[in-house]
Amino acid sequence: MSEFEQVYQAKTIHYSALLHRRNVVGVGVGYKEHAGRVTDELSVVVLVRNKIPRAALSDKDMIPQKVGGVRTDVVEVGEIRPLNAHTQRWRPAPGGVSLGHYQVTAGTLGCVVRDRASGRRMILSNNHVLANSNDALPGDPILQPGAADGGEVGRDTIGYLERFIPIRYITEPATCNLALAYASLGNWLAQRLGARHRLQAFQSNPIAVNRVDAALALPRQDNDLLEQNLEIGAIDGVAAAELGMEVIKSGRTTGLTNGTITILEASIRVNYGLDRAAVFEGQIVSTPMSQGGDSGSLIVTRQGHRAVGLLFAGSGQATIFNPIQAVLDALKVDIPQRSPRQINQQIAVEKAQAVKQAYEHALLARPNVVGVGVGLRRRGGKRTDEVGLVVMVERKVPKSLLRAEDLIPAEIDGVPVDVREVGQVEAQERFRGSPLADD
Prior knowledge:
By secondary structure, this protein is α+β, with helices and mostly antiparallel strands.
């Protein structure tokens, strides 16, 4: 028997037991990695959503160092999902998908942030994505997907513009009636005299500078947001940009791309179209990793997935982003840094919420079911730390007395299901003890 056949046999025998451990999403055969390098030793590879410190795992969830005499290797791959297009409608919506003010074509949902004053979750993106380059009002509808991707007000409204940092332009179309009249008269005279040159009125503010192109939207429903980024996973705090740092992003147009930071503290003139231009200082420049529609994407470190910047501009040769801490301070929000256990539980809660939203109507249609929710699973009458779907029934019925179509599955789309008996649920409009005096 060859080495590959031996490892494959060990995987085949043990994969079921491994796959049922918390945080495990797959098992296969591959070369073992050591200290970041791939060795020539074949191993049983266990794919996990997130690598969790051993101290945070129970004994039953630990991955053994060997199975069937073959060494194992644990590889972090994040949450495995169907690869829906970034331009489709997502509920709950992760960072990296199509989003925009109802009068804008489409940009990208950057990530979920938390307001420093209220603690509420909010949507982060650019001013020119959420606030229509200063031309919007707080309360305007924000669509997911954006209008260019079929988003419509009402059906696809994910939230409303909360606040934005105004962009200060060095040039923009004139609004002064005197200047417009002067240009009109000059062009009329030029035409009468046969001249080919024309006058154009514009506003000029050469000393205007900016640090960020950023805005926030408040979600219509909090559970419409997924606190992770598509193809990246959960974001774990922030990091300062460094020259040579390898970064990635998930965006509406180009999806998951990577780049390298090449310039810091850049002062750059950005063309916003419609005769508008603005200068930004203190910006970060990377190798090209974006195209039109990726504006608003969160730039994160390749290792550790910490936020570095907010993408807002670029060309065929470079991508430009605001330093993330400048964005957060300007908008008075934060991206929290969490422990691996908190990240893992948040992902589990959001996955359970998505499954609940997809299946609750079918579950509620079954006889004896009175409610569906998300909670911590119970085993042997004791609460565990495993997040799952909770199906509430009037009374527990032996499986042998139920039809096959009325059985509650132990797991739905990878989420464990806990059945709890709650009795008959009634409106408690009055005390139902002894009769009232006037009955």
